[in-house]
Design a protein that fits this description.
The complex is a heterodimer of chains A (332) and B (405). Chain A has 332 residues and is α/β, with parallel strands linked by helices. Chain A has helices spanning 48-56, 78-83, 88-93, 115-127, 131-144, 150-153, 163-175, 193-209, 222-228, 246-251, 256-263; strands at residues 6-17, 20-32, 37-41, 64-73, 76-77, 98-101, 181-185, 214-219, 231-236, 239-245, 312-316, 319-322. In chain A, strand 1 (6-17) and strand 2 (20-32) form a beta hairpin. The longest helix of chain B has 39 residues, at 261-299. Classes of the chains: A alpha/beta (332), B mainly alpha (405). Bound molecules: adenosine-5'-triphosphate, iron/sulfur cluster and magnesium ion.
Chain lengths: 332, 405
């Protein structure tokens, strides 16, 4: 497909720590279509945040560094510019074409500036609005994300807002410049369960009302994926294990890890006392198995798994699996 | 919030009473208290006069002993004839009327002494304080931005050295190295202005025109009876205008007051260099490190990442978003400015022989001049208590999160 919005190719982001090099993201390939909602799911530490921060080039350096790969956004290779040290390229895109919502709404806003100032800032910066215009527009955006009496509350400070309200502000801020891609890194994890659903719904609603931005939604919650995403990327230990559209993932998952994640979901109508979780621990990034990184926990482990790393294979059109059990689709 | 500050002001009253009551009580019960001091001074004075008088008094009793009546009078002066809490109430009542008693060593009202010395300390201290902010804030910011660079490491060595040398110790060393008549003789050895400027001094070129007192017209002269005939007066003297122009001449020698404005300014600055340097040195390390750490901490915060994610430049992120937050702990320190200055002034003024509040306090302690010591305690604790409130006010102004209730 030639018309993808963002194409990530062989992305590798490593962290140099005292214990050695942590390959947090080690060869990740995927793409996002315009207007699509793509989910990335995986357990804690699988490299979801690092992948999204790499797209924004917000990896703390040191200790982290993007060591290899290409990220092509609307035809521009962002990482090629990064390697040329041409940071203006990403700066013009950040907050403008690609914006991001973070996991921690409580700390992601600057405590000493008003909500209005912070929403208006990127409008002035990217859209060249006057402070007055930007302020009016900020009020409009805050109304759009459902902040009651936005015109009065715009002069309040973040500490006067609840967590859910702050996340709404973050969404307003992120969508204010009409981005074509919105990255949401676990936008609801830190919030109350009742508010989580509201925020997700709001994101999709506002997306539809504005420029229909594509969304890269990061979560470790399969239920969230089921409700919001078109396609899903399953990550484990810095690598993609399976990519497919959401129906395929839920109805015919191929990878044992995906199957494990799904088995941990409570099914409606089914009375289970204990949720089945995947046995064992995520291996340390410094001590990954030689072969398949999931082999320490896989119930279907067989002869080559421990020594030969499996390759990504396409089992059906658009369905990719990294497992020795996966059968490549019959080329016709 | 206003009620909070009103409450804070009201709370100052019991705190102030607590501090002063404690110190007042201690002076009552320590050996060598005010009455004993007075007796001692009296005995020394008696011994001197009797020696001077050629030993007319032959009885040892008369020399050393103080009559019971005098003892009672002394006790009455210092309030020792009453129980200490009554005496404290009397003392407090007088303090409320700005009567801090009379200094034993200077024989002048303590309040006058303090009023006279206070501005001197403030000029030195404030200059040092301001300068330290002007140096430490940019330095700390730069160290944080360039964290881990050669500049950061190099300046950390400086900070470390400054941290390990107290300001007044550096003052002693520098005076030995650079002070007047010492090794290099670049700066004066102390004081706040030159007493006598010789022809060799570079300052002599700033001397003004002058005249001799004898040349004043008689009727003007009589208004200034203290002037001796051969005494020089300079153009700054109010009587100078009356000297006939042919009697005026260019001064070759003189004092600080005989310099023109530029000369006086330079002379004062010349005297201020080392003491102010010592003030700055005393505050340098902690303030620089505080600034650096504060900014470093804020640069690691999530909101900084948000600011970067908006596409703002590194400059905007650091200087608009992070710096504003990191200045909060630095700025609230301003509330304690006066207390910090006065606390620093004790040893520095002693080393440089600056006749200010600190030296007054130091000497009153050494001489056990209780009225002055207590007076300085009163002023010091008032400033400290006000400083606390000022810090809170500043906090409220800068940090929107702080709302006292
Ligand atoms: N600042 C850092 N310094 C060192 N290592 C890091 C840093 N950030 C991430 N890593 C490494 O990258 C790995 C992946 O981290 P990442 O934050 O991407 O996980 P995640 O999938 O987002 O997990 P979570 O669900 O907990 O957010 C971590 O296990 C860690 O070893
Ligand atoms: S490759 Fe082997 S160990 Fe890895 S997931 Fe497939 S079956 Fe399990
Ligand atoms: Mg994460």
């Amino acid at each position: 497909m030639a018309n993808e919005l963002l194409k990530v190719k062989n992305l590798k982001t490593y962290f140099k720590t005292e214990a050695g090099i942590a390959k947090a993201v080690d060869g990740v390939d995927f793409d996002i279509l315009p207007g699509e909602v793509l989910g990335i799911v995986g357990e804690s530490g699988s490299g979801k945040s690092v992948t999204s921060l790499s797209i924004m080039q917000l990896i703390p350096n040191p200790p982290g560094e993007i060591v290899e790969g290409n990220i092509i956004f609307e035809g521009t290779d962002l990482l090629e510019a990064y390697r040329r040290k041409d940071y203006d390229v990403i700066r013009k895109i950040r907050g403008n074409k690609i914006s991001m919502i973070f996991q921690e709404p409580m700390t992601s806003l600057n405590p000493v500036f008003t909500i209005g100032d912070q929403v208006a800032e990127s409008l002035v910066h990217h859209k060249g609005m006057t402070p007055k215009e930007a302020r009016d527009y900020a009020v409009k955006m805050l109304e759009l994300v459902g902040i009651p009496s936005a015109r009065e509350r715009i002069d309040e400070y973040p500490h006067q807002f609840s967590g859910g309200m702050r996340q709404r502000v973050m969404i307003a801020m992120a969508l204010s410049c009409d981005p074509s891609l919105l990255i949401a890194d676990e936008p609801t994890t830190a919030l109350d369960v009742t508010i989580q659903a509201q925020i997700l719904e709001l994101m999709l609603e506002v997306k539809a009302k504005t420029s229909n931005a594509a969304i890269l939604l990061i979560t470790h919650d399969m239920a969230v994926i089921a409700e919001t995403c078109h396609r899903v990327v399953v990550m484990y230990c810095g690598r993609i294990q399976e990519i497919a559209d959401v129906k395929t993932i839920f109805h015919s998952p191929q990878h044992p890890y995906t199957q494990g994640l799904l088995a941990s979901l409570p099914k409606p109508g089914q009375k289970v006392r204990r949720l089945s979780t995947i046995e064992g621990m995520v291996p340390s990034l410094f001590n990954l198995p030689k072969g398949c990184s999931f082999c320490t926990r896989c119930s279907k482990k067989h002869e080559p798994c421990e020594n030969v790393p499996p390759e990504m294979v396409e089992t059906a059109p658009g369905h990719f699996v990294r497992c020795h059990l996966a059968k490549p689709m019959q080329s016709v | 919030m206003y009620s909070y500050f009103i409450r804070r002001f009201l709370l100052m009253i019991p705190t102030f009473i607590g501090i002063t009551f404690l110190c007042f009580t201690v002076t009552r019960f320590v050996p060598g208290g005010p009455v004993e001091q007075a007796v001692l001074r009296y005995q020394q004075a008696m011994a001197n006069t009797s020696e001077g008088g050629g030993g007319t008094s032959d009885s040892a009793m008369e020399q050393g002993q103080i009559s019971e009546e005098m003892m009672q009078q002394l006790k009455a002066i210092y309030g020792f004839d009453k129980p200490f809490y009554i005496a404290y109430l009397h003392w407090l009542w007088r303090v409320l009327h700005f009567d801090l008693g009379t200094s034993d060593t200077y024989s002048r009202p303590v309040w006058d002494l303090i009023k006279e010395k206070f501005p001197i300390s403030i000029i030195f201290g404030l200059t040092g304080f301001t300068l330290s902010y002007l140096i430490c804030i940019p330095l700390g910011v730069w160290k944080a931005v360039k964290h881990g660079s050669a500049f950061d490491t190099g300046s950390s060595v400086m900070v470390f050295i400054a941290y390990s040398i107290p300001g007044w110790t550096a003052g002693v060393l520098l005076l030995m190295l650079l002070g007047g008549n010492a090794f290099l003789d670049i700066v004066p050895s102390g004081g706040k202005e030159s007493g006598y400027i010789t022809e060799k001094s570079k300052l002599s070129m700033f001397l003004q025109q002058g005249a001799l007192a004898v040349d004043l017209p008689a009727e003007i002269r009589s208004q200034y009876p203290k002037l001796r005939d051969n005494q020089q007066i300079s153009a700054n003297h109010p009587a100078f205008a009356h000297v006939p122009s042919e009697k005026r001449f260019q001064l070759k020698t003189g004092g600080h007051a005989d310099l023109n404005f530029v000369g006086r300014l330079l002379d004062s600055m010349w005297h201020m260099i080392l003491p102010v340097f010592c003030y700055v040195l005393g505050m340098f390390a902690s303030k620089t490190v505080l600034m650096k750490n504060s900014l470093m901490e804020n640069l690691g915060q999530d909101y900084v990442r948000t600011a970067f994610a908006k596409g703002l430049s590194e400059r905007t992120v650091i200087f608009k978003h992070a710096l504003r937050n990191s200045l909060i702990p630095i700025a609230t320190g301003l509330g304690h400015m006066l207390s910090i200055i006065l606390a620093g002034s004790y040893l520095i003024e002693k080393v440089f022989n600056i006749n200010g509040f600190g030296l007054l306090g130091y000497e009153s302690l050494i001489a056990r001049d209780y009225p002055v010591t207590l007076g300085i305690l009163v002023i010091g604790s008032m400033l400290k208590l006000f400083g606390n409130i000022m810090s809170d006010v500043l906090y409220c102004i800068i940090d929107p999160r702080i709302r006292f209730s």
